[in-house]
Design brief:
The structure holds two protein chains of two kinds. Chain A is built from eleven helices and twelve strands. Chain A is an alpha/beta fold. Chain B has a domain at about 100-320: MetI-like fold (Orthogonal Bundle). The chains are: A alpha/beta, B mainly alpha. The interface of A and B includes residues 62, 63, 91, 109 and 171 of A.
């Protein structure tokens, strides 16, 4: 991938420190970049650290999780080193976030219109009246029928799909350049999921916002994103264009993920789940984290951990096996 | 919104049997005394003439149901009988005392909220941090100290030593009333605050860790705006019922505290009545206190409904 001029995450490490316990690294040396208007996906199993990575970018790490190192450069500024006030000023007009659970991510005792209007009032300095009008306009843009009436509803009065549309309207209300989505459709049923994904794509195009889209669902990445990173046990193991990675995965874990997911083009292909379980992060193996589950494991894989290396143009993978293959190939 | 409050008339209607039950208990208070109530009431002052006169006044010569019917009939007319001590209508005594006690309770409630909300917020921002431990020590202390003792200590410290507030009494003007009621209200507030703080601290911690607060932060909300708009209202909801229950106890506690601070409220009336065996007065106060508790229960549900749009006590919601 070309050097990114919107967001570039460099060697980000996150973990927990508790008194009298050794520090546990949960996300380790994660690096990736996102260009203006790019749609970037992060895929991986549950617990691989996708949400924490996203929350670190948004400055919303849960209590108990610390940044161990690295940089998060947003338009040249390291978000880990700006003051809390500068950071807050960015949240809304520059960076916005949509969460996984539309059921719990909205304030249950506040009217949804007011929740959408909150950001514009704070950041754009709109009057209550203008912000309310903007909220209704945003609701209309997200395809909510009868937005003026719905803006006076409380979250529990709306369906999951509508609530997620509210979240999207809220996230885009200050026209951010970067939209972070943490499994925004996982809690929705399949038809609604499809509509919401389409909506996200279209709105990001309209607003010119780049998208970082976290999911465990490969089909969703395939539909929504242009580029992706595959995460395993807190590492990025492969990055590249979605088309390329899906056609020709270079990391055994990516291959395993693709083989274990149903494919609508080949409905009769047998599903092959990846054997074993992800490692306990507190006792990470010395070598490659995936080695204990890997079909192509070699002696060297258990001793040292491979780093992310370019395999072809715009592709990187963290696997010794791939690297030998690549080095063996004619340039 | 308004139809969610349509449960109120039904709730009032269902309170009627409870109130009726209370009147029966209050009525029977006199008759549960061993032996002849008139003799028991008059004690060693009971000459045969006086006993006969009192029996006549209390209607003790009539069958029990008729006595109750008469009692209830009088109550409905606002007639609580005549004080056996000073021959004044009990209704008048109660009428004078109710606003005093109500003011005291309201004052205590406000003070306890003024104490509890900031302390709970401070404690919840960093659970198990130094300030949290301090707040928790205060709640333990507050719960361990008996109310009357807190009252006496406050009198000794603030009134006698520092001479900031009067030792007791109620004053003449409205401003004086508040001035005189400050220490007793503070005493009640100190005893009620620990329970509120503990509930509010727990729900504030839950709220601060919730998804909707993360969403609010993702909109750039922080500090006191975040606390007011997103945390407090959600955290207050579970605390409302805790406060409702505790107000009931507070009504009981105010009886002792009024005595300690010589405040002419329901509590003082009740205690004077008990010492003088002035049964009509005792009955009237017991009835009014029971009414207080019932009304507080209904107000709690109303507040709950106003604060939490998901709550619906009305019939359609239950069906
Ligand atoms: N507040 C926390 N304290 C301690 N550990 C945490 C905390 N939050 C997450 N973790 C741990 O960090 C790891 C990564 O969590 P994360 O939520 O980023 O996973 P994820 O990839 O988003 O998974 P999912 O698909 O289930 O959402 C998990 O193993 C989890 O147990
Ligand atoms: Mg997650």
């Amino acid at each position: 991938m070309t050097p990114s001029n919107l967001l570039s995450v460099n060697n980000l490490s996150l973990g927990v420190t508790r008194a009298k316990h050794p520090a546990t690294t949960i996300v380790k040396d994660v690096s990736f970049g996102v260009d203006r208007g790019e749609r970037f996906g992060i895929v991986g199993e549950s617990g691989s650290g996708k949400s924490l990575t996203l929350r670190a970018i948004a400055g919303l790490l849960p209590q108990g999780i610390d940044v161990f190192g690295g940089e998060i450069n947003y338009e040249g500024r390291d978000l880990l080193r700006v003051t809390p006030n500068e950071r807050r000023a960015l949240m809304g007009p520059e960076i916005a976030m949509v969460f996984q659970e539309p059921m719990t991510a909205l304030n249950p005792v506040m009217r949804v219109g007011e929740q959408i209007a909150e950001g514009p009032r704070r950041h754009l300095g709109l009057s209550r009246k203008k912000a309310d009008a903007l909220a209704i306009e945003m609701m209309a843009k997200t395809g909510i029928p009868d937005p003026a009436k719905r803006s006076r509803a409380y979250p529990h009065e709306l369906s999951g799909g509508l609530r997620q549309r509210i979240m999207i309207a809220m996230a885009l209300s200050c026209q951010p350049k970067l939209l972070l989505c943490d499994e925004p459709t996982t809690a929705l049923d399949v038809t609604v999921q499809h509509q919401v994904l389409r909506l996200l794509e279209n709105l990001c195009d309209d607003f010119g916002a780049a998208l970082v889209f976290v999911t465990h669902d490969l089909a969703v990445v395939n539909q929504t994103c242009e580029t992706l990173a595959v995460m395993y046990a807190g590492h990025i193991v492969e990055t590249g264009w979605v088309k390329d990675v899906f056609r020709d995965p270079r990391h055994p874990y990516t291959r395993g993920l693709l083989d274990s997911a149903p494919d609508f083009d080949q409905p009769n292909r047998p599903l092959r789940p990846i054997p074993g379980f992800p490692p306990n992060l507190a006792e990470r193996p010395a070598g490659c984290s995936f080695a204990p589950r890997c079909a192509q494991v070699q002696a060297g894989c258990l001793d040292s951990s491979p780093t992310l290396m370019p395999v072809t143009a715009n592709r990187t993978a963290a696997c010794f096996e791939t690297r030998t293959m690549f080095e063996g190939m004619p340039a | 919104m308004f139809h969610r409050l349509s449960f109120i008339p039904g709730r009032l209607l269902r309170a009627l049997p409870v109130i009726l039950g209370v009147t029966i208990v209050v009525f029977l208070m006199v008759h549960l005394l061993p032996g002849d109530p008139a003799i028991a009431i008059l004690g060693d002052k009971g000459t045969p003439q006086r006993i006969a006169a009192l029996r006549e006044q209390l209607g003790l010569n009539q069958p029990l149901w008729l006595q109750y019917a008469t009692f209830l009939g009088r109550l409905l007319q606002g007639n609580f009988g005549t004080s056996l001590v000073n021959n004044r209508p009990v209704a008048e005594l109660v009428f004078q005392a109710v606003p005093v006690t109500l003011t005291l309770l309201l004052f205590a409630l406000i003070l306890s909220l003024l104490i509890s909300i900031p302390l709970a917020a401070i404690a919840a921002t960093r659970p198990n941090g130094g300030r949290d431990l301090g707040v928790r020590a205060f709640t333990l202390l507050g719960q361990g100290m008996p109310q009357f003792w807190v009252g006496i200590m406050l009198i000794l410290l603030v009134s006698v030593e520092l001479r900031l507030f009067p030792v007791g009494g109620y004053g003449m003007t409205d401003a004086e009333h508040l001035y005189y009621l400050f220490l007793p209200a503070l005493t009640l507030a100190i005893s009620m605050a620990p329970t509120i703080i503990r509930s509010l601290r727990a729900s504030t911690i839950a709220s601060l860790g919730s998804d909707y607060v993360a969403t609010a932060r993702s909109k750039g909300s922080a500090g006191s705006a975040l606390f007011r708009q997103h945390v407090l209202r959600n955290a207050a909801i579970p605390t409302i019922s805790v406060i409702g229950v505790n107000l009931g106890y507070l009504v009981g506690g105010s009886i002792v505290i009024e005595r300690v601070f010589a405040i002419p409220g329901l509590g003082s009336l009740m205690l004077t009545g008990i010492f003088a065996r002035d049964f009509p007065t005792i009955q009237a106060v017991a009835l009014v206190v029971a009414l207080f508790v019932i009304i507080i229960g209904i107000l709690t549900d109303v507040l709950y409904t106003l604060l939490d749009p998901r709550v619906n006590f009305s019939k359609e919601a239950r069906a």
